[in-house]
Write a structure and sequence with these properties.
Blueprint: H1 2-38, H2 44-87, H3 93-120, E1 128-131, H4 132-149, E2 152-157, E3 163-164, H5 166-169, E4 179-182, H6 184-208, E5 214-223, E6 226-233, H7 263-274, E7 278-284, E8 287-294
Parallel strand pairs: 2-5
Antiparallel strand pairs: 1-4, 2-3, 5-6, 6-8, 7-8
Helix pairs in contact: 1-2, 1-3, 2-3, 2-4, 2-6, 4-6, 6-7
Amino acid sequence: TGCVETRMMMSTLLIAFATFVLGVGVTYIAMRKQYEKCKPQMNEAELNAREQKIDDFANLMQSVSHHWRQPLNALSLMIQDLQDAYEYKELDSEYLDNMSGKSMALIQEMSVTIDQFKNFYKEGNAQEQIVVETVLIDIMTLLSKDLERSNIEMVYRFMNNECYPVDVLKTLEALPKHRIFGYTNEFSQLLLGLFQNARDAIVKVQKEDPSYQGRIEISIKEVNKRIQIELFDNGVGIDSSIKNKIFQPYFTTKDVGEGSGLGLYMIKLMIAHNMSGEISYTSKKHATKFKIVLL
């Protein structure tokens, strides 16, 4: 009986997560339809914002799918193992307790991912105080599996130059809490956009050298009472011939169909208009650093 009940529980949970994924897919299709319907009535700024949000939604779901692949595979194997344990008379209370603990840990990991995804797309009409590190950890968690599969290391760099991955970062009690004022949703989107650009720049190098070890570093500090966020990647770099174009709308160095050319334009717009900040960058081969300065 215990075997049947446990298998039913785990199967139900897998179905629940699959239903969530289906719901997100339906949401994406609805967003596209709504966009096409309202497109004739939108001004250029509204069109740009809506297009970028749809692109971000699709990219984030790709990261979520990578994040879930390992725990889903593990849960599937555990369900199969239950039947073997039953047939070989190994299904006792100790086995079930061990199986239950492992499965609940995996389910908790997936549940956290859902909460982070919901928070990322939660609409907000009012500005609020934002703890930068809290938003950053959520985004790093969502992207971690995708980047790991792409052979890209992602770390947080402290003032003393010590670097930690997100799993360690979550456990640090002494992690600083820098606060800014703005829209949490927009701030999450702009950070996500910078991380994704860094990933794409590294992947370009890896197409020529599949063994290339990618690296993304992010640091946060306060300088003259302003919050400074820096994001470094060792990707292909930004050619000096386009340095005055990268923040222009519809300008992209990506292949046709891979980018709208609105990412950095919208990031600069959100930082300047809603956060009284500015963004700049320096770049050479295998070393690009974006710097955001906020009040």
